[in-house]
Structure formats: C-alpha cells, structure tokens
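Review form for a predicted model. The reviewer records the input and the model, then writes brief findings.
Reviewer: anonymous (R2)
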Amino acid sequence: MLEQAAEGGARLAVLPENFVAMGRRDVANIGRAEAHGHGPILPWLKLAARDLKLWIVAGTLPLPPDERPDGKVTACSLLIDEHGEQVARYDKLHLFDVDVADNRGRYRESDDYAHGNNVVVADTPVGRVGLTVCYDLRFPELYTALREAGAELITAPSAFTAVTGAAHWDILIRARAIETQCYVLAAAQGGVHPGPR
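Model under review:
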C-alpha cells in the first residue's frame, strides 16, 4: 500500500495503529527487539520511506520509553521523513481502558502499555503535522493543544473495535476536524482479525 500511495503522488502516508501487532505476546516481543535495534520493523520503515521518497506516520509500534522501570512499552507513533530519518515520536497519551458490548467485553491497554506525556507537532512538506493515536480522538483538549502548537494536519492512526468504530469513528474524526479547523488524516485497521475484536 505504501508503494501505491507513492505511485499515486502521495507525500505522506499513515499506517494504522497496531499495524505490526495486536496481541499481548507480540507487544512484549516486538518492544524488546525494536528497542535494542534488532527488530526488522524500524529498518524496513526507514528503507521504505527512503526508497519511495515518502513521509510515513508509522501507526503504532510498541517501544519502551526512556527509563521505564516496570518494563511497559508505549504505543508509539513515529514520523519518518523521505530520507528514512525519524523526525518525531509520539507516545499515546490516552490508553483504551474501557468495557465494550462485544465478545471481549473489557479492554485494558494499561496492562501492557504506559501512557505518554507530550504533545507532538512536526514540520513536513505538507504542513505542520500533529500526532495522535486512536483513543486520543475522544479528548478534544489534546487536539486543541495541537492546533495551538501550530498543527495544520493531525494524524489519528487507529484500531477501533467493531462496536466502537461503527458507533463513533466518523463522528469523532469530523468533530476534531471541525473544532480545530485542521485536516484529520485517520487510518484504521481493516480485514479480518483473529479473536473477539
């Protein structure tokens, strides 16, 4: 899909949240490998960005934050430029700890993830881009802070559940765009997932 985006003239592509992993075991393993520079994902993304001359928002990767004693990772969204360099990192602020009327019922991202602490805006060829992730869409004050920091476009890579996505996805994206007068570029999961999600 990145190749199709580049061939179509895109200058920025956004991958969805959890584009490489959805399960707890995957989160822990990927986080450890990528943190120590032994994982395949970051080098692949950087190479793709460079080869395709494309800026990429890497949905989320489970990466450890600096000095985290409990071993938790953050849901980290990386902005990679067309030279393959990482220019920004956003650690998801609002974790999805909710009860949902679906087959799973209870979601607790805080069991595996630590929350981030910073609002992130970066300069790109398509304007100043603010970074958010999924559940952040439910917190308009974050989007206001991004706009006040100069964001013109805000990304929202997501992995909504089928129930919450059907009920809220479009409404939340439109609300954040209207409130901030920014474009919101939101990429969601697609296809079939194993399990109750």
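Findings: The CA atoms of residues 58 and 78 lie 5 Å apart.
Further findings: Strands lie at 12-14, 55-63, 74-80, 86-91, 97-99, 106-108, 121-124, 127-131, 153-155, 183-185.
Recommendation: see findings above.
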